[in-house]
Design goal:
Strand content: 15-25%
Largest sheet: 9 strands, antiparallel
CATH class of the largest domain: Alpha Beta
CATH superfamily of the largest domain: Regulatory factor, effector binding domain
Helix content: 40-55%
Number of domains: 2
Structural class: alpha+beta
Length: 302
């Protein structure tokens, strides 16, 4: 049994995660302190302070940041969508409010950002990667990127906020905690899928604010407790490419899909998080520290 203080911390974290999920899935809506405090089951008089203590960011600072960073992502991935439309879709009440928030966050206008940033995964200030099609082709197990029509899925998750790139031990810890919760509840079977869902762009969001959720598929009515949360993966079209990757290879694989395959595919990224899916038969089958993984991106026709 977990120490009491750990149980309390996990319970608080689970409540905060519910609020983050609600904000992320209703980003175009207005939020009130009363509404979000009720979702967390905290008094509105204390919720703001609790959120700040748990996330190291004020509640409405978090909302503003997620909105402007989501807009930055959409500006790059949806070049033909007007800036004002993207601003409204991300919850800004006017183009002028969006312009101020964007300039404050990125020190440039949205139009300048769109021209300057041709791909989220080939930013100049990021580390150099081997971008040749041949290098990515060697890592692909299946040469073609498939377009899959996925059904809506219910996911149980354990979430982490902070740097995660190349940290295999972190992901093992997250999935271990999730499995320790799921095993006694008979939620693990041969049909269970494991995913890592990414809520932010590693090229836009500060490293200490990045969110990743280690997930398994569960029945819709599953009750979650403590630090384990529950969310829905939206149905729709997803581009899926299979790789065999070591801990330091993931950025390059994502980069290849966004900077090489996507621009010539006839598709644009759709709204919703990207994720990695770990095929069940390959889950424990490692070769020289590499794992088989499907990188999945929600897409829509251009």
């Amino acid at each position: 049994m977990e120490p009491l203080n750990t149980q309390k911390h996990n319970d608080y974290q689970g409540r905060i995660n519910r609020v983050m999920d609600h904000i992320e899935t209703h980003l175009d809506k207005e939020f009130s302190l009363e509404e979000l405090a009720a979702i967390a089951c905290f008094s509105k008089f204390h919720f703001h302070r609790i959120f700040n203590a748990m996330v190291n960011e004020t509640l409405f600072g978090f909302i503003q940041r997620v909105r402007v960073e989501k807009a930055a992502t959409l500006l790059v991935s949806n070049h033909h969508t007007p800036v004002t439309e993207i601003a409204l879709d991300c919850g800004f009440t006017s183009s002028s409010a969006f312009a101020r928030a964007f300039k404050t966050r990125f020190n440039m206008t949205a139009t300048q950002w769109r021209k300057r940033t041709p791909s989220l995964y080939c930013r100049a200030e990021k580390k150099e990667t081997k971008d040749s099609p041949e290098s990515h082709g060697r890592r692909l197990l299946t040469r073609d990127v498939r377009i899959e029509e996925l059904k809506s899925q219910t996911l149980a998750y354990v979430r982490y906020i902070g740097p995660y790139e190349g940290d295999a031990a972190l992901f093992e810890s997250l999935f271990s905690r999730l499995y320790q919760w799921a095993g006694p509840r008979d939620l693990i079977s041969g049909q269970t899928q494991c995913l890592a869902v990414y809520h932010d762009s590693i090229d836009i969001t500060a490293l200490d604010k990045l969110r990743v959720s280690a997930c398994i598929t569960v029945p819709p009515g599953t009750r979650v407790t403590g630090e384990v949360g529950k969310m829905q993966l939206s149905k729709g079209k997803y581009a899926s490419a299979r790789f065999k990757l070591g801990p330091s290879d993931y950025y390059e694989a994502w980069n290849g899909l966004f900077s090489q395959w996507l621009p010539s595919s006839g598709y644009a990224p759709d709204d919703g998080p990207c994720f990695e899916r770990y095929p069940p038969m390959e889950q424990e089958e490692k070769e020289c520290g590499k794992m088989t993984v499907d990188i999945c991106i929600p897409v829509k026709p251009l």
